[in-house]
Amino acid sequence: MIGTTLQHRYRLDAELGRGGMGTVYRAHDSLLDRPVAVKVLSSTTLGTEGRARLLREARATARLNHPGIMAVHDAGEENGAPYIVMELLHGQTLRQLSTPGFAQTIAIGRAICAALEHAHAAGVVHRDLKPENVMVLSGGSAEREARIKLMDFGLAFTSDAARLTHDGAFIGTANYVAPEIIEGQTATAASDLYAVGVMLYELLAGRPPFVGDSLMAILSQHLYAPVVPPSTYQPSVPDALDSLIVKLLSKRPEDRPASAAEVRRALEQLDQTSALVALPDRFVPLSALDRIARGRLIGREHELAEARAVWQQAASGEGCVLLISGEPGIGKTRFARELTAQARVTGGQVLFGECHAEGMLPYGPITEMLHTRCCQPGAPPMPDLTASILADLITIAPELRANFPPVPPNP
Fold first, then answer.
1. Selection from 217, 161, 168, 214 nearest residue 344 by Cα
2. Residue 283 has what pLDDT?
3. How far is CA 273 from CA 147, 243, 270, in A?
């Protein structure tokens, strides 16, 4: 597309980078005679709804005005492909930055939190914070200051479902994704703070808190594994910072700091006269004991493989039932959670229903799942069903009647 002019205004001059969702170009804005960056996204990846959502979020992000957030100048579509026009930045991403010392790490953390504080106050959540989306600009002190810009703010992915169904697109984000996102919940400010915790951990310890040889191994640790404090790998990390990062990496959003402002203040209170920390050049290998401590299922590889095969069969359109049985305490619940995480990551919808030995209405779990599927805000539309199936569903769960057209009673 180099040489193409979008909307008779933005001439694409050179490619700056390419990713799973699109390509970034250096461009020239002929109307205002200035250099800009233009991200052209893949229309086939987003779909109609995704394109509309992207443009809405671009407009929301354009209203943000903060020195730590990349400015969005314009957005539109060209031949069905959406594009975002942004300020052109010069610097290094946090991923490209050479190993920072302790003071610079704290300064970067403060700057990121200051930008998040502004965005969250405006109701905008990033959703995909990671080192590649943090640009460290030139001009600040190498030790005590950090000029950063958060990129792709609020635009990270307009369709979480699209990201989850493409392992290749998701794997780059897996190290920084909050547990609630893996479980299919909506991203919130707390989800951004979790990613901040991961990035601070990685800057200090020289490795992310959770590593694994597969996407599922990493996601499973986010969900279940306890956090090994960064001081385990870098003993010079102060206790106060150790505790803050562990709190940021809490599994439950409500257990994390209440806001980006709280994290920023905590970082400001840290002793800025501490000696610089020399970070390791490579990750410390995991021992077998460390892997167990991180919550990986041990000795269930065969059962997991069999269960995943059943899920793949169901995903292809063949209805299946998988029964998990065993003595209390052997890990049935954990096994089921591992399988549901796999289903969510590959685009499945997971519904839960409970039944008990006493005091349960017939079909209670099924009614509970149907109610979740049909009646919760934001639930996707139900597929077309025959009249006989609809009648049976409404017999089991009468409250669903409002979600469907009038159905004659069964003969």
1. 161
2. 42
3. 20, 19, 9
Cβ neighbours, 10 Å, residue 104: 22
pLDDT attached to residue 190? 97
86 DSSP β-pair partners: 37, 72
**Is there a contact between 72 and 85 (Cβ–Cβ < 8 Å)?**
yes
Alpha-carbon distance 134 to 157, whole Å? 16
Please pick, among 13, 29, 128, 290, the residue that the annotation labels catalytic: 128
Share of the chain above pLDDT 90, in %: 32
Q: Which two tokens stand for residue 220?
A: 């499973």
Instruction: Supply 374's token pair.
Output: 């049909």
Reply yes or no on whether 167 is catalytic. no
Q: What long-range pairs does 295-300 form, CB within 8 A, spacing at least 24?
A: 295/220, 295/221, 295/223, 295/224, 295/225, 295/226, 296/212, 296/217, 296/220, 296/221, 296/225, 297/220, 297/331, 297/334, 297/335, 297/338, 300/331, 300/335
Task: Look at residue 244 and tell me whether its pLDDT is greater than 70.
Answer: yes
Spatial separation of the C-alpha atoms in residues 257 and 250, rounded to whole Å: 9
From CA 86, how far away is CA 40, in angstroms rounded? 11
CA 385 to chain centre: 34
Give start and end residues of each alpha helix (H) in 34-138: 43-62, 102-121
248-274 burial by CB neighbour count: b if 16+ within 10 A, else e? Answer: bbbbebeebbebbbbbbebbeebeeee
Q: pLDDT-derived band of residue 166, with 50, 70 and 90 as boundaries?
A: very low
| Range picked from 44-48, 233-237, 259-263, 394-398 for highest mean pLDDT | 259-263
| Antiparallel, parallel or unpaired: β 5-6 and 134-137 | unpaired
* pLDDT given for residue 328 in this prediction: 78
Residue with tokens 């704290």: 106
What is the model's pLDDT at position 317? 79
Pairing of strands 22-29, 134-137: unpaired
Which residues on adjacent β-strands are paired with residue 36?
27, 87
pLDDT band of 297, cuts 50, 70, 90: low
